[in-house]
Amino acid sequence: MTTTAAASGAGHRAAGRSAPTAGRVAKHVLALLVLLALLYPLVWLLATSLKPADEVLTSLKLLPSRLAWGNYGTALDGVSGVPIGKLLGNSLVISVGCVLGNVLSCSLAAYAFARLRFRMRGPMFGFMIATMMLPHHAVLIPQYIIFNRLGMVDTFWPLVLPKFLATDAFFVFLIVQFMRGLPRELEEAARIDGCGPFRVFWSVVLPLTRPALITTAIFTFIWSWNDFFTQLIYLFDPTKFTITLALRSFIDQSSQSAYGPMFAMSVLSVVPIMLFFLAFQRYLVQGMATSGLKG
To answer: Tell me: the pLDDT tens digits for 214-254?
Structure first.
């Protein structure tokens, strides 16, 4: 009887262990399938960039019959006589400028809304949140008229300058939510030591807000790098084109369908974003987890 009961108990424990194990395996298989579905566009882009011109639109196979490395040679030559290094450099200058502008201006605006007390703070914060629902196209023409009168059209200033004015309400709201969760005792201690509002912001609040600032920097960099419409409106000189504008110009510069080199240039344009994301992925998850849940 004792041996039978022990065997029965061992069987129940084994069955109890196998059920969770089967569930974990099913979850991992489902996660792998979702991962393959998400990565398929990148794999297709890489494979198509190596296809010969006659296979890009005619062949349904994922892998090319032969590797056309010449597509990357053509892509490295750039467009309209501008090498790809110059195009990538222009995109980098604009993206870094936007990151610096958003991090600086949005953190200052967020500190004012989250910590300072001033008249009409609530209505002004609500008005700022309401601008998130305003379509970008509604303010495009007034902004273009202003920059045109200032002589800034066909320069990088219309793309970078608004970021120094805290025009991205999403990032202001993100940082405000994070700052509201910080303990006020640290600021009160700094004020007792004689620190003013700006010194408290720079020495106490800003270092503690690093996760939210890194999240702002990552999203700003990616959005600025991938921006096409705004750059199309303000940039005319090919020497000032970014990599996204070069992809459009790559098709327009000849009547022939050069899809292979275009996809090769697309791969080269994705590489900096992937490297940037991989380098700061840990901070992105940390910033989103700690910023979005505080209130």
So the answer is: 889 989 999 999 999 999 999 999 899 999 998 887 665 55
Rounded distance, CA 123 to CA 64, Å?
A: 59
> What is residue 202's DSSP assignment?
I
Question: Distance of alpha carbon 13 from its chain centroid, rounded?
Answer: 48
* Cα–Cα distance for residue pair 221/168, rounded to 1 Å: 13
Contact 287, 276 (CB under 8 A): no
Helix/strand/coil (H/E/C) assignment for every residue in 80-126: CCECHHHHHHHHHHHHHHHHHHHHHHHHHHHHHHHHCCCCCHHHHHH
Total-model pTM: 0.81
Rounded Cα distance between 182 and 176, Å, is 10
Cβ-based burial of 2 (10 A; exposed 0-12, middle 13-18, buried ≥19): exposed
> How many residues can be counted in the chain?
295
